[in-house]
Amino acid sequence: MGKSSKDKRDLYYRKAKEEGFRARSAYKLLQLNEEFHFLDDEHNLTKVVDLCAAPGSWSQVLSRKMFAEARDVAPEDKKLVAVDLQPMSPIDNVTTLQADITHPKTLARILDIFGNEKADFVCSDGAPDVTGLHDLDEYVQQQLIMSALQLTTCVLKPRGTFVAKIFRGRDIDMLYSQLGYLFDRVVCAKPRSSRGTSLEAFIVCLGYNPPADWEPHLDVNRSIEEFFSGCAMSRLQIADDAERLPAWTDGQRSIAEFMSCGGLQSFDSDATYHYDDEVLASLSDKASLDPVQSPTNPPYKKALELKRSGKLTRAV
Amino acid sequence: MSGELKDIAHYGPALCVKFSETYPQYTFVAMGPFMQVYNYKTGELINRARVFSANKVHGFNFSKDGAMCVLYGSKSIAFCKTQDLLTREDFSKDEKMFAEWITDAAFSFTGEQVYILTCYNLVVVTDLEGNIQARRNLKNERSILYSGSIKVLSEERVLINAGTVFGGVLIWDLLKQEKIHNLTGHEGSIFYVVVSNNGKYVASCSDDRSIRLWDMESGKQLSIGWGHTARIWNLKFFNNDSQLISVSEDCTCRIWDVVAESGATSLVMKNIYETHLIKNVWGVDVNETEALAVTSGNDGRVKLIDLKQTSRVGDEVRSFNITNLPSNSPLSIEKGEIFKGFYWFNFGLVAITSLGNILKFTEATGTWEILMRDERLVSYSLTHGISTASGNVALFANNKCDLLLLNFSKDGQTIKSKNSLHLDNLSKSCNTMITAYQDEYCLVTVESPNPRDKFAVLQLNVDTLEIVHEFNFAKPDNFVSSCLAVYQQYLIVGGRFGAVAIFDMRNTDADAYVMRQLCPGDTTTSIEYIEERGADILLSVTNRDGFYNFTKVNLDKLASREGIAHEIIHSNKVMKGFLEGAFYNESGEYITYGFKSSLFYMYNEKNCYEIASEVCGGAHRQWKLCDLGDGQGYMLVYIKAAELYMRKIYTAAFPETLESGLHGREIRDISIMPERLPWQYSPENGYLFVTGSEDTTVRLGKYSPETGAVVNYWMERRHVSGLQRLRFISDSLVVSCSAREELFLWTVNTEFQSNPYMHIRQTLPTQSTHPDLRIMDFDVLFNAAGTGDFALATVYSDSSIKVWWYSNASNGFIELWSNRYQTCCILNTSFVVLQGRIFLLIAATDGYLSLYDISREVDILHATEDTRTVRFVNEAFGAIASTSGPAFTLRVHKSGIKTMDVARTKAGAATVRVVTGGDDNAISLTQFNCSASGELSGTVCSMVSDAASSTVTSTQLLPGATQVLSTSVDQRVRLWDITPDNQLSLRASKYTTNADTGCCDIVQTENSHHSLLIAGVGLSVWKC
């Protein structure tokens, strides 16, 4: 997250700074919770997995809810695991794993940390790099959700909750339809802190309830399609013994219930707020505290350096 | 009532493009779900075939013999005869599907099988019927791929080249199912991998913005190609693997040489072409026979690039050093003598040196000679020239009022006449210019820096170079001449500070008519006469600081000296750099030229692409652009590092685009001019329309509702942030708005033949310096008196609401009323007249509709019988800063109301129907009532909560207000009936190929049909 003046004017960014969150996305989870209260019953929040967790703002929220604000359940009975391919700086009470969520070893490590108990809550705020090809970006995002869901089906206890970031594009109704086979209730939730101009929303899946005769099994050599085969949700079977490519048909679609989260009194992320210059000046002092998580090294760092040193100018 | 939705034409991202050796005259282009085939020599579209029902075609490959084609995109795949792509309209019933995303598909060496590579690094082998014959993969390598390609080298050797998301490039042998290399070195996701045709090299590109060349044998990295400033999407080897072409998000296409010398192989960048707008070039191919490249991009453009632009004829580039000029007899050039000026004629170049030597270069012989020496022109001289039917005149001048004119024969062999003269009536001269005049004359202007001196104009006979007339005008105050044009007896002179002065040669006593600051910039660089219409003439004026405009001058007013005779009808700014001149070419396209730092450019302003560019010298460059004549093209002469360069820019050997494309990013709003234009401008019998995009530009174009043909005229670059809304508020006025409180009132002018024109008539005053403060929407009510005045309501992202009065006579906005809703962003507004009272309806991100009673607080605005006009009682008044809340509010949506349309009310109406669409996927029909005493009430009559599977972005009432058309991000267009009991009932729903479907506009055509323009990332023409 940068420190441009635009960010300074973003109220959620300022609030995140003031309250010690690594990113403004913390408020998205908090506002989802205002509506669904999935983080409010500490007896049903003892084993939690945060997937694609870096830089860690959701883990921070979860840590506060599970530990700092908890009263009844002893801390040693609770486990919070954050998984990401990227390294993450430590957070109180969070076990961070730098690992691939699609790998069976990762699953084994989580179950080990949980003492083979199942999770109450699994979430993922992950998003891939967007290319600008809308259909590819939507597909990759759905694959990321399905990868998270694979792991989730292996660790989530019945009636547990799964929350993930989605982009409401062309085929989102196909995802809703699939999730409907695994959960009692599927809601598309839009927190007020998520910009209205963005396609971002969150899928809140309540009451994990997989088909009774289906046993999830992670295997690196099986595709996501294969993983979910046998569970009624798989949309298209090209089973291993299929002989022909089937003719094209549109997939099964259903529209999920929509819910807006975060009260109307909360900040509107599309609105422009005015401050006088003094407020902004004092902010810039405060903002000289760097973001808790230092910005990651982008893959194009070298290209930026070359550009800055004038080596990418048009010479031919 | 309309029942059926029909799509007629689609323009949008083109993801893949290829030439075919079997069909050497064609270019194949994947655009949306279609395959479009063009004859690249004529630009003609041969066929458009629907390939898939909904998915986009991402790529296609031909079999080795070219007879078959495999097309894929998303999870769809199809096989067909290449021949059928030239004729058949629809292949979608042959569409087959796959479980996973298809990354590439290719024919086997023999063409009997198809290999299909998925994004999970699995290859399925099928026959041409789609019968699966084998599945192949690499054990434990199934992470998702952003890219991958299949290279069929022989029957036995098929390579799978997979680009992973973690920077690795996996090359594996398909038949052996064995890994050959895992090439590491890139950072970030790999976006393309390709193997050279001889199998020796691998080239890859990634998020790190580099191209890497690898040795297939050893797996060693041979070279890194830096240069692209954004992500690179596609690569292709050509010319026997000795060259590589790359395309990128930075909108450029680059050519690289694969140089193998002294044991090392490296990538060396050879050329850069600016090809597409704003973002993302996806597809690229090269036709080696023609030396022609083709690229396709997100802007929907299909661009042809002549790889031999500087070598096709052979004489495109020439350079000379003054110390070593080829000649038949020795030239006496002294040490330190340099070129001071030059002009190109059909026979060659005439130049002058710092010692006053006049040189001639004859193109036919390739030799130079010294013609004469003029002592007066030592050290300081200006050079100009003209070519007319009567002769080729070179003009040299110094700063002491001395001139030398030479008239060359057509072949340049003889000097037909010469005039060496001195102007006695001027104390000094600072600028001398020449222009052709009538058939046999030319005009030479001589300007003195002394303000008391006259502005001298000589009329000379071109053939004899004798002075036939001398005009002496009083020089306007603060006027420094810089360019020249002539129309009839009017001498039109451009100057500094954006000024243009018109001198009447039939009335030399009269002061010049001076138009000051026509552009915001400084030096006027060119003036072109375009056309006349009645007593009006149209001039094109350019300014070095990048501005250009079209100015209408009324000759009657000019002659009578009464009032203002000129009016700007078009204004714009070039994309980047300095503007030295502009003109219409023979196809009626406006061509601009100038410099971007050290780069000379010529740019097609109509279709927005660079025609040519040349790296020239720095700030004090010497250069001239001259016409090659006969429509052949242009000659750029310049001096760089003491060398004289002559660069011919020939008229393109091929069409420059096969599709010109639209915006590079999503279209935020679209509006059709209500009046149909039967004849003016191509396409015939169509409508003008404007689009506003996230790319910050506004485009003016025309389309035909019947054929779907779309022509662009202008791309206006005056907004500095992405557009929010724009609309034709009348047949000649457009309002557009965006962030930074920008709201522009544009005039659209359709009275000239050359083009429709548009100009910002006025901008709305701003009140804040907050860069993020966006004007989200607006509405207008015109003055019933027909004065062209109107009331304007604006709503803002900081929750403020304003009502203004626009006075046409004074061309100004006055604020009447302001208020603030809450703190949330307001998204939509509309004036509503009920029971003779004016209300302002707003819709915000909180899902509420609210009505403000404007009549109660603004007593100078009165509703009329016609509910879309007002009367304005022009009394003294002050702006009212209201703090009263809305008269009525109603929650309609769970989340932001993205779109709103209000049914037109009848005179004296007590109720109004409002249709809205939200971020909550819902569409609703709401009715508001107003009692005779002004009491408001409202109910949601119909609420369809699952109207779409994602955000509803536009809901429009069809004329008559009994049907609603909606668009949404799920890429569906839906037509709803409003039943007599005010319920919304779905009548038709159809898939649209525009991603991020954001807006639409409707116009009623003949036979009560409706024509629709639907836009997002791309534009579609529909009817219903």
From TrEMBL, chain A:
The keyword Lyase belongs to this UniProt entry's keyword annotation: no
EC number: 2.1.1.205
Binding locations of S-adenosyl-L-methionine: 56, 58, 84, 100, 125
Record InterPro entries: RNA_methyltr_E_TRM7 (IPR028590), RNA_methyltr_RlmE (IPR050082), RNA_MeTrfase_FtsJ_dom (IPR002877), rRNA-MeTfrase_E (IPR015507), SAM-dependent_MTases_sf (IPR029063)
Keyword Hydrolase: no
A Pfam cross-reference name: FtsJ
Family to which the UniProt record says this protein belongs: Belongs to the class I-like SAM-binding methyltransferase superfamily. RNA methyltransferase RlmE family. TRM7 subfamily.
Protein name: Putative tRNA (cytidine(32)/guanosine(34)-2'-O)-methyltransferase
Chain's gene name: TRM7
From TrEMBL, chain B:
Keyword set, alphabetical order: Cytoplasm, Repeat, tRNA processing, WD repeat
Keyword Disulfide bond belongs to the record: no
This protein's record includes keyword Metal-binding: no
Entry superkingdom: Eukaryota
Protein name, entry field: Rtt10 protein
Location of the protein in the cell: Cytoplasm
GO cellular component: cytoplasm
InterPro entries: tRNA_Anticodon_Mtase-Reg, WD40/YVTN_repeat-like_dom_sf, WD40_repeat_CS, WD40_repeat_dom_sf, WD40_rpt
Family: Belongs to the WD repeat WDR6 family.
Any single GO BP term: tRNA methylation
WD repeats: 183-224, 225-266, 945-986
Classification via Pfam families: WD40
Main location (coarse class): cytoplasm
